[in-house]
Every structure is written in structure tokens, then in C-alpha cells.
Fold this protein.
Amino acid sequence: MIEVSDLRKTYKNGVRALDGLSFEVEPGTIFGLLGPNGAGKSTTVKILTTLSRADSGEAQVAGLDVVRDADRVRRSIGVVGQKPGLDPDGTGRENLEMQAELYGIVGATKRERVEELLGRLGLADAGGRIAKTYSGGMQRRLDVALGLVNRPKVLFLDEPTTGLDPEARAELWQEIEHLAHDEEMTILLTTHYLEEADRLASRLVIVDRGRVVAEGSPEELKRELHGDTVHVELAEARNGDAAAAVRDLPGITELTVDGRMLRARVDSGAAAIPSMITALERGGLRVASATIARPSLDDVYLRHAGRSFGQADTETEEVAA
Amino acid sequence: MTALRHTRQVALRYIRALLRQPAWVGISIVQPVIWLLLFGALFKRTADIPGFTGGSYIEFLTPGVVVMLAVSSAGWVGMAFIDDINRGTMDRLLVSPIWRGALNLGSVAQSVLTIAIQSMIVIALSLAVGARFHNGVAGVAVLVLMASLLGAVFASLSNGVAVLTRQRETLIGIVTMVTLPLVFLSSALMQQSLLPGWIQWVARFNPVDWAAEAGRSGSTANADWSLIATRTGFLALLLLASAAFATRAFNAYQRSI
């Protein structure tokens, strides 16, 4: 349903957004594009939805070339962008009616479709209210409704739950699952939440610096993530000494030291932390704190891209050092 | 057909948004009144200058204020595009099968509607304080047409600049810099024969002057219909060019993202 081959794009400011990106999406599936900010996810969506163009490479959506057949691609897709696409000064109903008209859906068909979508996304009571008075979750659902007006074959969801509270996020997840199931739509979802891709996507690629670094089902990728990640913060930065002190401890793999932060993958965090602290202090390095983290997207990255992309989405458990 | 429907949708959206701002509606109605009365009072003695042939100054000034309103009102139209781009609204429209020209033309339609209403308010007020228009409805229609065409040109330019720069500050700067000089380099506020020679020369290339001259001529006893026709033609050509510029600006925008 989507075929992407060797897409490359460099922005005028010299930022290389895509560096030979390729992947394929089977019809009727939810496909995840997973990566940190700046990995090239949004650029990919912009190119596939005809908003932007690649410097080179080919992309087909619903069997149509996104450059040569741009207008037909636009009729086949629905897009829920990262930024809100709704018109905040119009009511929910007015937003949807205008969108319908743009796709040539008019008259009674339009009114039916609009009411159906308002109901479906839990906005039936709010349809007559100005969209800027909606809560964040409601605005997001209106954005999704806007993307569904033309009954698209392929739906693009670019970071659909970013900025939503956990409750609104869970609701939207449920809605996305229903959509894929009931309407037999192909959905391409970008996200930087591992749990989101895990919950929704049947297959995913991990993107880093504009390239695919890993591909598989969430289960396959998680299987690589057995064990825990341990973060140790030292009182002072002495990279060489710190690495030397713990490198040879049993059960420690993928050790990285960056300034005062030491990070290691271990079989069991609870078992590794005491021995790591002992080894470090024996080497004259005072430990400020130590943390065990559940396997996260960070770790998949570290493994596949050779670097981490921040710890914002990691659930951590503080252990007194 | 599709083009028309899409343009109408875009226009409706912007009109609706404006009507929902009572402050904007109030200011839009009061502003022309203030301008006409203030300029009328300030330059009242102009009518005493030897060589001034325009009757009372308020009669002479009315077309000038209408044209000035059109330019200054249309100049800000691009702000809505900048807001749409900064949110994701414009991107959502650009990935729909919308006819690209509808984005500018719909916004221009909203601007022209505003300008036409403001023009009528100025004309009605001017009549109320004693100005006399010749040629009845035709004279008024010419003036409103000129203001609308000129407004459409400036609204398109504003939209094009908005899409290319995507910065409110830049648009504010350009509008402020361009609007007043163009009005002063024309016969909007002063009879042409009384303008300094170099301004008379520059004014020949100034669309604000085209609109002011033609708009004023329409309501004089011996209206110069060939002047009105040629100025209408010039403004129509300029509108075509500026609308094309505004629509093509989206290509540049899409290449940059």
C-alpha cells in the first residue's frame, strides 16, 4: 500500500533529513515509524502526503506516485498532522463540512458523513461549539475526524498523541485500533513512544538520522531488549577510570560513559547495581545516584544507532546510592 | 465549478472567523468614519488653494479615503495565512485536493467584501455631511469597484508575502513601509495638478493613484469613462499577476518544508 525507496532530502539549512530511507507497508495494517525528534519521521510523512518533495528516491501510496500523481494521492489519503490542522475559529461541524466540500462531498451525503464522524469520535455534543474551546484531546479527535472525512484508503497519523494526557492518549489509541479494524484502512503512524508503537503497530521501522536502523514486529524488537538498563551518575567526570572499573563485571554489556553519566545494559538491574557501585568506589569514584530503567526505545536506539536520544520517555525507578 | 466551490469555502471560513470577533467588526465600521471626518477637518482649507477645482474638500476627499482604506485594510490579510501556516491548518488544506488558487482568492473575497462595506459606509457618511456625487449609482459603483480591485491586488500581495516569509513582524514591516508612501505618492488626498511635478510623474505608475483618479472621475459631472476603463484594465492585469504570485508562493513554501 505504501512503497518507499531510497528517499533522500536535505533542507536548505544543510540539515539532512532523509538519507536513503526505504520501507514497505502491507495493506490493512498499522505500520509504525518510530524515532526521536529529528529522525526524519515528519519529513517522510510530508513527502508521502504530497506536502513536500524528496530530493531523490521514489514513493508510491495506494499504487500512485506521490509526485506524478499527487492529486490522485491526495484523494486517496487522510492526514492527521503533528500540528493541529483544525480551524480554531470554526465549530467542529463547520470544520468537517468544509473538509467534505473540498473532497467533493456535498448535500445530504456531506451532512450524514459529518454527523457520523462527530458521533464516532465522541464529539456529537460538541459539534456546534467553536473548536478553540475544545480540550486538547477533543481537538485531536477533531483532527482525526478531519482526516477521515473522505474515507481514505491510507491514513497518516503523525505523532497523534504527543501532548495528550494519558487518559486522552488511551482513548485515541482505542479509536485508532477500531479504525484499522472496522474500515480496513492502512495506517502509517509515526511516534516516539515505544509503548504506542507496541500497542498499535503490527510492524514497524526504527528511523534514525533519516535511515531505517531496525525493522520488525514490536515483539521481535522487544525480544532483543531483555534485561535492564542501569544509569549511574558519578560525582565527577573521569571517563576512562569509570569504564575500566566496571567493564569486566559479570552480566554487563553495552557500556557507555558520557561525562558523569554511565550507562550499561545488564541482565538484572537489582543484581548489578550493588556490584557496580562497589567496583566504582573501589576505583575511587564516588557515586551520586543510580537508576534502573525498564527497556525503552532509548535502548533500542542505543543498540541500533549507537547513541541515545534522551530519557524523556523512560520510566525510571530511583535507587538510593 | 470545483474552483468556485473551493473558493467559496475558503471565503466563508475567513468571513465567519471575522464576524465572530465583535471588536474587529466594530473597529472596521468606526475606522472609516474617523478617517473621513478627521482628514476632512484637517485639510478643510485645501479647497481654498488657488487652482483647486474639486468643489468641497470632503467631496474631493471621499474617493481618496475609500482608496486609502482599501489599501490599508487589504494589507493585513496575509496575517491569517501566517496563523494558518504556524498552526497546521494550511498544511491540512495543502494535502487535500483543494484548487490552489482558491486559498488566495477565498481570502481575497473576504477582504473585498470588507472593503466594499467600508466604502459604502464612507460614501453614505460623506453624503450625510453634504458631499454631492454625480452620476448616481454608477458613480458610486465605479468607486467601490476601484477600491475592490485595488484591495484585491494588495490582499494578494499580502498573502504572497505572508506565505514566503511566514513571519508576522516581516509582514507588519512591509505593510507599514509600503502603504502610506503609496497613498502620499498619489492624488488620493490632493488634487493631481497641485502635486509636486515629480510626484505627478511617479503617480502615473502607482496603482493607488489609478484607483483614486478613476474612482473620483466616476462621480464628477463630466466623468472620463475612457480613463475609468483603462485604469480598470490596469488594475485587473495587476490583480491577475498578484493572484498568480500569491498562488505560486505555495510552491515555494512546499519546497522549503
